[in-house]
C-alpha cells in the first residue's frame, strides 16, 4: 500500500511536470502455432502524450500520423480514454483535466496490435497521472482483462517475445522467449482491413486431437528455433492447424505472396495476429530481398501493400 503523503508528493511532481509521454510498440501475435499465447514486440510505435490542462477545460483528444482521421476524438469513444477512465474508476479516483495527443505509427486493424497500444498507453498514462499506484504486474493483468487475451498486450508492455499461460490459480505467468539475432521479422501490410471479430468468427469451436498434438509439437519446436536460430527447425515450426487454415481465405491475394515467398530464403510466412498483415521470418542478410518480393507479389495480385523490415523491440512500453 502506498502511503498517502508519498502519493500526494508524486502527484504534485506530476502536476509540476505537466506532461507525460508514453511510447508503445506494435506487436505481432500467434507466430503460427502460438495461437492466443505467443507474441512479439516490433520497432514500430504509437506515442501518447498527456498534457495537463487548466481546471475546467475537460478532456481533449488530438491525433496525428498514420490514418489519424480514422481515430475517434470523442473521449467517451476513444479506446485509450476509455481505458484511462476504467483505471480511475477502479481506483476510486478522478483524472485531471488534460489533453491527449496521439501520434500513430502502427496501422489500424491490420494485425499489428494497434488496440493493444491504446490499452497500454491509456493504462500507463492514467497510472502515472494518479501517482503510479499500480505496479507493472497489476497493469499487465488489467490490460489482459480489458483485451481478453495476453498475446498482444504482454509484449507491448514488456517488450521482446512473450509466452503467456495461466497457473493453477488462474494467474497469468509471462515467460520471456529468447529471440536469436539472426532472425529478422518482415511485415507486409495491405491497404485493406480484417477485423479481429471476423477473423475469429471463421474458427471452429473444437479441433481434433491430431491437430492439438500437431500445434503443441510445433509450438515447442518454434520456441527452440527462435532461441537457437536453427533454420530447419524454424521452417517446420511455423506451421499451424488451429487458426491459419481458416483465415487464409479471408486475405485477398495471399496465395501470390505464399507462392513467391517459397522462392526466397525466408523461413516461412504466417498471419500477423488476426491479419491481414503477413509476417515472414528471414535471415538478416536476406530480409530486404524478402520484403521486396512480398510487396511485389501482393501488388501483382492487385493489392497495394507496404513491406517493412523491422526489428524486435526489447524495451516495451516506455514512459517519460
What report would you give on this structure?
The protein is of the alpha+beta class and 320 residues long. The protein has helices at 4-17, 79-91, 114-129, 136-147, 153-158, 196-201, 209-228, 231-237, 244-247, 254-261, 287-300; strands at residues 19-29, 38-52, 59-65, 98-104, 161-166, 172-177, 183-190, 268-271, 278-283, 305-309, 318-319. Strands 1, 2, 3, 4, 5, 6 and 11 form a seven-stranded mixed sheet that branches. It has a four-stranded antiparallel sheet with strand order 8-9-7-10, sandwiched between helices. Helix 10 packs antiparallel against helix 11 (287-300). The longest helix is centred in the C-terminal third of the chain and has 20 residues, at 209-228. The chain is globular and about 60 Å long.
Structural class: alpha+beta
The shape is: globular
Query: In percent, how helical is the residue content?
Result: 25-40%
Count of beta strands: 11
Give the secondary structure arrangement, pairings included:
Elements: H1 4-17, E1 19-29, E2 38-52, E3 59-65, H2 79-91, E4 98-104, H3 114-129, H4 136-147, H5 153-158, E5 161-166, E6 172-177, E7 183-190, H6 196-201, H7 209-228, H8 231-237, H9 244-247, H10 254-261, E8 268-271, E9 278-283, H11 287-300, E10 305-309, E11 318-319
Parallel strand pairs: 3-4
Antiparallel strand pairs: 1-2, 1-11, 2-4, 2-5, 5-6, 7-9, 7-10, 8-9
